[in-house]
């Protein structure tokens, strides 16, 4: 709590208070209602564990430095190798911390990429500090760096660089839902190759008549079938008359 004493650092409130306003803005401007199912049962992933079993953390934000500090203790339900925190859990919290930094500094944004270098494993139930800072802004691109260290700052556990894309209300999911979820997020990045549709063949008017082949003549019935019929068939025809 000493981070808050001089007023330069602000302790971020609980996730419900943090996301209540942002979620309403996101839902209003960017979310396609047809893509949302079961939202009333949704929970923030990092807060979905029972106390002490998963992610236990608190974040502080410094607006002047555009920086977020996260104090994290990981519980036993996030174990990877015996006695150590799972790498995916570390990546989750690094993404969450850098994302909080990007959104606080630049507005609602989403992850475009996150590159992590794992240095040393983190023992379960130990406390670490995730330090994230906004490095630069290029248009809608927000570049954020991050590292995970022990509380005494002697051990570097992980470091990462991240790119976030600030959402544009004029290119929202509501307007471009048919183009796929990530279309507008990655504008400004190298676009994928355009898919050129194959043109449909033009209809042929009055197609030319095919000249009958010799085999077609053999398959056609002869007008003199009665002359070439065997005697037994001729007798049957006479009796039927």
Strand order of the largest sheet: 1-2-3-5-6-7-4
Shape summary: extended
Please mark out the parts with pLDDT under 50 across 5 or more consecutive residues, or reply none: 180-195, 237-241
CATH superfamily: Hotdog Thioesterase
Number of domains: 1
Q: Number of helical segments?
A: 6
Sketch the topology as an H/E string, one letter per element. EHEEHEEEEHHHH
* CATH architecture assignment name: Roll
Q: Report the average pLDDT across residues.
A: 73
Radius of gyration: 35 Å
Pfam families: 4HBT
Catalytic activity: (5Z,8Z,11Z,14Z)-eicosatetraenoyl-CoA + H2O = (5Z,8Z,11Z,14Z)-eicosatetraenoate + CoA + H(+); dodecanoyl-CoA + H2O = dodecanoate + CoA + H(+); tetradecanoyl-CoA + H2O = tetradecanoate + CoA + H(+); octanoyl-CoA + H2O = octanoate + CoA + H(+)
InterPro entries: HotDog_dom_sf, THEM4/THEM5_acyl-CoA_thioest, Thioestr_dom
Enzyme class: hydrolase
In short:
This protein is of the alpha+beta class and about 240 residues long. The protein has helices at about 15-30, 85-105, 175, 215-220, 225-230, 230-240, and strands at about 10, 55-60, 65-75, 110-120, 125-140, 140-150, 155-165.
Give a quick set of tags describing it.
HotDog_dom_sf, 25% strand, 241 residues, Thiol Ester Dehydrase, Chain A, extended, EC 3.1.2.2, 7 strands, single chain, mitochondrion inner membrane, alpha+beta
């Amino acid at each position: 709590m000493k981070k808050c004493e001089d007023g330069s650092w602000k302790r971020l409130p609980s996730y419900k208070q943090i996301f209540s306003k942002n979620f309403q803005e996101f839902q209003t401007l960017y979310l396609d209602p047809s893509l949302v199912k079961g939202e009333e049962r949704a929970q923030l992933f990092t807060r979905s564990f029972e106390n002490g079993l998963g992610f236990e953390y608190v974040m502080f934000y410094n607006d002047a430095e555009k920086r977020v500090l996260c104090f994290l203790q990981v519980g036993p339900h996030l174990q990877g190798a015996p006695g150590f925190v799972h790498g995916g859990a570390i990546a989750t919290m690094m993404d969450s911390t850098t994302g909080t930094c990007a959104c606080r500094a630049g507005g609602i944004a989403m992850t475009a990429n996150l590159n992590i270098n794992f240095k040393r494993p983190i023992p379960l139930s130990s406390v670490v500090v995730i330090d994230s800072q906004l490095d630069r802004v290029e248009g809608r691109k927000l570049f954020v760096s991050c590292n995970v260290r022990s509380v005494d700052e002697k051990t570097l556990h992980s470091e990462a660089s991240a790119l976030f894309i600030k959402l544009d209300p004029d290119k929202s999911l509501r307007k471009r839902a048919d183009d796929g979820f990530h279309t507008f997020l990655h504008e400004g990045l190298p676009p994928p190759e355009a898919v050129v549709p194959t043109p449909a063949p033009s209809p042929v008017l009055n197609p030319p008549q095919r000249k009958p082949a010799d085999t077609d003549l053999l398959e056609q019935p002869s007008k003199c079938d009665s002359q070439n019929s065997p005697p037994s068939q001729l007798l049957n025809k006479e009796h039927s008359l």
